[in-house]
């Protein structure tokens, strides 16, 4: 048994044990420490850090207790920030910023701040946060991963590749550098890294989350060199591992659709109270992989439009109401105006809004058009439509960080596309012409004509800057980042045909679900 002579010695022991990978010993000592010194903030601080992955609820309670005893407890701040970031990234960033004011040389705080900020259109409280960790300690792989994420989203591909390669050198046993390099530049994955990962698979030393990441990285690599059979095989492996970890929720998707279709039509509101100032949303909806990221990048180049990215606030409002998904139907105008104001306030806390409009390109908001129309009767809604075979292929080949649980199966993808089509037919019956349908293929063929249609729908004047969308200065953090930054490529429209033989189950499933497909 470890002999504890002081709180400081025990804290150091726990941190060293975690660094060695001995989580059992670290948690055991941390648990003894809080029992022996319940009034010591440092004890609860290190407990929160040690137990974060193992017992999240106990870790969060410990983090709150540590910060109540001493607001400068940085390990507790990290634990709470990780917990808060998905639902309230602004709060998480503010918490980390306070920790960095107290301890500006703490590398893990900079790494976590970058991890939270890079996917969001949120202004950083510090200049170049992605570089702080590697300047303080260039030997930390996670710091270089942060540099890679930030620069990939900003369109700095070469810098991102360099950072991922550096991370791979520092952490040769981790699959994360390989995965992110495979996403950013599959043609730059070192052959020795491919051989090493395949050897680990062959030896049975790769499973679970690591296998999922590695398989998607290998799929991208083999796709880039034109080996479709190998690429599809690795996609099947990666999606199989993801399906074990994140089971699909098709029963829930069916139930929500049915409840929406059976509900009474929403009340028609001619106007709504302006919510939180002049900034107004432009909603961009459609299936993931249909072109929503491309459209947002085009519109955000307009002088009066700010990029909002994939905002979660409509979905949160919908699910906060009793009787989801139809709870908004019973609300009076005052309550709806209050919800609209809360939505805009949430956006303002997350996004810098210098223009009159901002984009909300959460694709799955196609489920919530009824709520959107109740909150913002006059808001422009742009719906992206694309060949279902191309959409299905795009989804199957992408590893979604969160959501889209159906995308690991071609059968479930086909059914979800059919569910999407039923939603859109329903909204178009309720509001004929109220949603602007944009065909991805037509937009690629004639970008200017497509952009003019979208700007007219939003009531905005023509701005030629929209044609220069590949140079947009906002971070593009979705899986489409590389394609969007690469400019228009008409070959992408038919890219799925290289895999037509492998995608035959998708084609049959689409037809079985009544989804029309081209030849």
Describe what you observe in this structure.
The chain has 25 helices and five strands. It has a five-stranded parallel β-sheet. It has helices at residues 7-20, 23-36, 41-50, 56-69, 74-84, 89-102, 107-117, 129-136, 141-153, 157-170, 176-184, 191-202, 208-224, 228-245, 250-262, 292-300, 313-320, 333-350, 369-375, 388-397, 410-430, 440-445, 447-458, 481-485, 504-512, and strands at 280-286, 305-306, 357-360, 381-385, 436-439. The mean pLDDT is 89. It has 519 residues and is mainly alpha-helical. The relative contact order is 0.08. The chain has a domain at 279-512: P-loop containing nucleotide triphosphate hydrolases (Rossmann fold). α11 (176-184) runs parallel beside α13. The protein is globular and about 75 Å long.
Summarize it.
Helices cover 57% and strands 4% of the residues.
CATH homologous superfamily classification of the domain at 279-512? P-loop containing nucleotide triphosphate hydrolases
> Any idea what the CATH architecture of the domain at 279-512 is?
3-Layer(aba) Sandwich
Side-by-side strand order of the widest sheet: 2-3-1-4-5
Which outline best applies? globular
Mean pLDDT: 89
**CATH class value of the domain at 279-512:** Alpha Beta
Strand residue content: under 5%
**Which parts are unreliable, with pLDDT below 50 for 5 consecutive residues or more?**
none
Structural class: mainly alpha
Radius of gyration: 24 Å
- The biggest beta sheet, please? 5 strands, parallel
User: CATH topology of the domain at 279-512, anyone?
Assistant: Rossmann fold
End-to-end separation in angstroms reads 70 Å
Number of H/I helices: 25
In total, the number of strands is 5
What fraction, in percent, of the residue positions are helical? Answer: 55-70%
**N to C succession of SSEs:** HHHHHHHHHHHHHHHEHEHHEHEHHEHHHH
